[in-house]
Amino acid sequence: MLQSAKIKYIFPIGFFLALFLDGSINLVFSKALFAYPYSMVSNLTILWMILAIFFEGETKLPIATWAAGVGLVFDWYYTGVFGVNMFILPVLVIIVQWVKVFFKPTFLSILLTFFLTLTLYESAFYIVFSLVHYTTVASAEFVAYNLAPTLALNLCFFVLLYLPIKSLFRHTRGANFRSID
Amino acid sequence: MQKFFSNRKLVIAVICVIIAVGLVTLSVTTRKKSATPILQKVGNDSVAVVDRVVSYPMNAIRNTSQALNSIINTYQENARLKTKIDQLEAVRSRSQALKQENKQLKQQVNLKSSMTDYKLVTATVISRAPTSWQNIVVINKGTLSGIKKNQSVVAGEGLVGRVIEASYTTSKVELISDSSDSANRFAIQLQDETGKTINGIVTSFDRQNNEIVMGQVTSKAKIKKGTLVTTSGLGGVTPKGLYVGKVEAAKEDSSGLASEIYIKPAADMSSINIVSVAELN
């Protein structure tokens, strides 16, 4: 018997929740996260996106479309510069979806994909902002003080949230596909 | 021809890139204007409603932990503050007398309002943008409370930044620790040892030491460490007399022609919860 896939509704809600939680976490823990010169930000949005791509099973969620929507809200609400996340996020989704068929989705391989995607995301975001001169952080400084701490923090989040999110997806993506890893 | 157009993905990709570049350019040009477009304001406010709901439990956690923290420090803090209160009373009465005198003098010379006439609107920070190299916070007051673009923002003791986008009930504030080219430069001033005023602007932010840099100072006067730095009101956007910080060091810049003054900011830029927006009368 085919259960209706609740994840179709849970996924977008979780996506936006992650977006707002990012802003909130950055504010609540700002003392620890923005200890100059280091600054790290939580990127639960990317984490949710990557895990969804791997755990969607055969539910086939419209992840790229939702990513564009979340990107638009991000640009609108947080930075006020449109057309940045709105395009970077869906492009990342397409790249990861294309890459994921080449390897088995194990904990380590997903971790690595997340690591690379986050690096790509942060760098692309940073490059666009330095092109329009909205930041003058030098690229060497960016790697040492922003990118590395951000990656470290988000890998911790990944390790903590991997199993809960995995079981959430497994239990909500429809009964027929539970057998698939 | 047939083959080129059959490659739809390429065409779509190129169109997307063009749209992205167009949107970014549009945003950058609208940021330079004096007001935020209505559509953007409405969007900001409606997103903020959702954000407030999501961040409510997080803020509850923050408030509880802060309360617990302050209970631990209460005894020592109380003893320290008691000694300060007496001094403050003296300063307050003097400031009141000076204010009165200032008002009378202004009346005599028919000066309606000057750069020191401002009122503060208090707002709470509701979110911090998840971008590590650009420091933007969202506050819960907007144009309905009289906040306008480019107004200066103060947190606790000192200057922290400037409003870059004002919606109806929310605003975005760019912190002074953002040393981007487009960040508006604050006009600041300080007194040298002989009492002469040195004017300058905030040129950058030294992330390594968490210090504000006042560059291109041509005056060769000696500046004492610990001198108070305030906004100068030059330029007509920032009120005069907002506290910025204390001088940490004065060094020659790399060209050797001018000097750079390093200022320890009075406000803690890494954790900002409640801010006040300075509105010029």
Task: Give structural notes.
- The complex is a heterodimer of chains A (181) and B (281).
- Chain A has 7 helices and no strands.
- Chain A has helices at residues 7-28, 30-33, 44-55, 63-79, 85-99, 107-131, 139-172.
- In chain A, α6 (107-131) packs across α7 (139-172).
- By secondary structure, chain B is an alpha+beta fold.
- Chain B has one domain.
- Helices cover 36% and strands 31% of the residues of chain B.
- Chain B has 3 helices and 12 strands.
- Chain B has helices at residues 2-6, 8-32, 38-108, and strands at residues 118-128, 136-139, 152-155, 158-166, 171-175, 187-191, 197-206, 211-217, 228-232, 240-252, 259-265, 274-280.
- In chain B, the strands form 2 sheets. A 6-stranded antiparallel β-barrel of chain B has the order 1-2-5-4-3-12. Chain B has a 6-stranded antiparallel beta barrel with strand order 6-7-8-11-10-9.
- Chain B is globular, with a radius of gyration of 23 Å.
- Chains A and B meet through α1, α2, α4, α6 and α7 of A and α2, α3, β1 and β2 of B.
